[in-house]
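User: I'm preparing a small set of examples for a lab meeting where we compare how different chains pack in three dimensions. I only have the primary sequence for this one, and I'd like the structure in token form so I can line it up with the others. Please keep the answer compact; I'll paste it straight into my notes.
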Amino acid sequence: MNRQLPRRLALGAIRLTNWLVDGVVLSVLMLIVCFTAYAVLDNNRVVEQADREQFESYRPSSNDDPSFEELEARNPDVLGWLTLYGTGIDYPLVQGKDNDQYLNVNPMGEFALSGSLFLDYRSPKDFSAPSTIVFGHHMENSLMFGDLDRFGDGEYFNRHRRGNIYYGGANHGVEVCAYLLVDAYDEVVYSTSVGSSPSTEEFLAYLKSHAGQWVDGALTPDDHMLVLSTCGSGTNDRHIVVAKVIDQTFQNDFTEESVDRTLAGTVGKGLALWAKIGLGLLVFLLLAWVVGAPSRGRKGSRGARKGDRS
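Assistant: Understood. Below is the structure token output for the 310-residue chain.
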């Protein structure tokens, strides 16, 4: 009897160790699954914050649109609306006291990680400067400035060169003329003193020499340009689309395509969300079964030995 005691104590210690190891492993797996589910849900929340449909009722539809005036009254920093036809770029424009204010605030003045499309705080609100810089986050599902990088493709660039900008109570045409991939600290592209230093001619020459896509003769020193900027895949990479504002407006020929893409994106987001969560739970259950297999094997062996003794 006394000789069996050390063996029983050893077996008890082994079982306790196995139970603790199984518990730790399962706890870690559960934490991983919970973290994954949280990350997916949080990402979905950010995407919803940038959904164009929540701003749709404020879209200017005439020179005296009351709904847009309502948005202006709600947030005095709202100054216009930018649309590039056939893309996901279709949002109000704002301007803050600095270039940080609207990084995580939407056009209604509410906290949102998706932020807003905002003018450089040093630019005139009437787009009278030779170059007006507009910033926006690069997001998936063509949200915010998520489509700017696509202008690096020649076919896409040529098919999506027209748009509209509303400000000062009137619509104006937007004509895309160039695409560049630059550094975040490019002092020429991000200059707010174009026309003096550098001169407009120097600015245009610099753009042409660094452009991935360029339309010869489309930009002149007399134009009022939009420099649309968003992040790239590298830390300091920035996608730039340069367009000019003109008095002539353009018809939107992409209406049906845009609606189809929006619906597909909405369905896709929902399916992707549940697919990721479901996959996480499946992996957790599979790993939990694998971890528990040795315990089941030990129980089966003990049962077999008891049966042998009987």
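A couple of notes for your slides: The CA atoms of residues 26 and 288 lie 6 Å apart. Confidence is low (pLDDT under 50) at residues 38-42, 258-267, 303-310.

User: Perfect, thanks.
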